UniProtKB/TrEMBL annotation:
This is Diaminobutyrate--2-oxoglutarate transaminase. GO terms for molecular function: diaminobutyrate-2-oxoglutarate transaminase activity; pyridoxal phosphate binding. It comes from the Bacteria. Belongs to the class-III pyridoxal-phosphate-dependent aminotransferase family. The lineage of its organism: Bacteria, Bacillati, Actinomycetota, Actinomycetes, Micrococcales. InterPro entries: Aminotrans_3, Aminotrans_3_PPA_site, Dat, PyrdxlP-dep_Trfase, PyrdxlP-dep_Trfase_major, PyrdxlP-dep_Trfase_small. Its cofactor is pyridoxal 5'-phosphate. It comes from Myceligenerans xiligouense.
């Protein structure tokens, strides 16, 4: 298509996977210029947990604008900001007994990760940070240093420093042993290793291929961080905010992180917002105004994000997410059984589920077949061989069923 050739030469950033021009979107559907409707199993890479143009959020934002609410406020206090903070404290932190301070970090997940790195260095006076193979934490220099993907890191032109990379639990060489070996090396001065400022981990590596860590391993990472006086940081940017069937992906795992990075879904329906939850003793290490940013006070994001919190007023919404996650896992399990002997695999928790096809070219062909049949689904993981399914949590049952059927047919026709 001509428009894509133009965009390629001029902005180098268009989506090659879905070569069409979209005009409108509602809940789990996007419509293109020709009037064709697509089911969205991508949901803005985990941003649109509550669907495109979520009605509650749309109405709240329109009312806010009509009342001339403060849209841009930097660090000033506004009622929209206060309502969001109070709502988050009351509905999310309070019931969990989490005494965390909330720090707004700007619009993007990378902003939150950068701030966590900076604060961990300030608190510990140390430079290095531990991150894990197959992790994804962002594209800015600090967050990119933590990101494991070579292709993305190569864009920086020179090696990025100050990261010790350990194997994620499910990766080759991963598990308890790797943590113990690192602990032993730190204790042996002849290794030359210095203790890190922080360990930064995703409980489920979303971009890395939907690799699911166990609570036991995550607790061991936390313990190691404590033992060497480093901070334990959970990046819940993609799998937090209800995605796994509980607000935080680590709920119920007996974990007590020093910092939790949140973004994507917390801003509501694509209205950008990033926030770190920080233990008060660490938060106190920054004086007011020491870490600032122009876009940390986006009024529309506070309004939409406040509406998002109402989904967690009772457990019904999360119970529905867990039930739909099972529907997704069963449908993917059936695809794997149909293709017995091909070595396909299903992974996930709640409404982040994945089909590992073991082959990037095959995953790309299935993605294209899905697109042609009206389903948006995105490959991720090593060599792009994993299809990651992250529909809006609010997806109607009919759309979920139809999307899963399209995927099954696409795999049958392609594999
Ligand atoms: N952390 C995780 C776990 C992510 O999935 C992402 C985005 N895919 C980021 C950080 C970076 O967020 P952003 O693109 O908003 O900077």
């Amino acid at each position: 298509m001509e428009v894509f050739e133009k965009w390629e030469s001029e902005i180098r950033g268009y989506s090659r996977m879905w070569p069409t021009v979209f005009t409108s979107a509602s809940n789990a559907r996007q419509v293109d210029e020709s009037g064709r409707s697509y089911i969205d199993f991508f949901a803005g890479a985990g941003v649109l947990n509550f669907g495109h143009n979520n009605d509650r959020m749309k109405r709240a934002v329109i009312a806010f604008l009509e009342a001339d609410g403060v849209v841009h406020s930097l660090d000033m206090a506004t009622t929209a900001k206060r309502d969001f903070l109070e709502g988050f404290a009351e509905k999310i932190l309070g019931p969990r007994g989490m005494a965390m301070r909330m720090q707004f970090m700007g619009p993007t997940g990378s902003n939150a990760v950068e701030a966590a790195l900076k604060l961990a260095r300030r608190v510990t006076g140390r430079r290095d940070v531990v991150a894990f193979t197959h992790g994804f934490h962002g594209m800015t220099l600090g967050s990119l240093a933590l990101t494991a993907n070579d292709y993305f890191r190569a864009a920086a032109g020179v090696p990025l420093e100050h990261v010790v990379r350990l194997p994620f639990e499910t990766a080759p060489g991963g598990g308890m042993r790797a943590l113990d070996d690192y602990r032993a090396l730190l204790a042996d001065s002849s290794s030359g290793l210095v203790p890190p400022a922080a360990f930064v981990v995703e409980t489920i590596q979303a971009e890395g291929g939907v690799n699911v860590a166990s609570g036991e391993w995550l607790r061991a990472v936390q313990q190691l961080a404590r033992d060497v006086d480093a901070l334990f940081v959970i990046d819940d940017i993609q799998v937090g905010c209800g995605r796994t069937g509980s607000y935080f992906s680590f709920d119920g795992m007996d974990l007590d992180p020093d910092i939790v990075c949140l973004a994507k879904g917390i801003g509501g329906f694509g209205t950008p917002l990033a926030m770190n939850l920080v233990k008060p003793e660490h938060d106190a290490r920054w004086s007011p105004g020491e870490h600032t940013g122009t876009f940390r006070g986006q009024g529309l994001s506070f309004v939409a994000g406040r509406e998002a919190l109402t989904y967690f007023d009772d457990d019904a919404f999360m119970a529905r997410v867990r039930a739909r996650g099972e529907v997704m896992a069963e449908a993917l399990g059936a695809i794997v059984r149909d293709a017995a002997g091909r070595g396909f695999e299903v992974r996930g928790r709640g409404m982040i589920q994945a089909l590992d096809l073991g082959d990037g070219a095959l995953a790309k062909a299935v993605t294209t077949a899905c697109f042609e049949a009206g389903l948006l689904v995105c490959p991720c993981g090593t060599g792009g061989r994993v299809l990651k399914l992250i529909p809006p949590l609010t997806i109607p049952d009919d759309d979920l069923t139809e999307g899963l059927e399209i995927l099954a047919s696409a795999v049958r026709a392609t594999a």
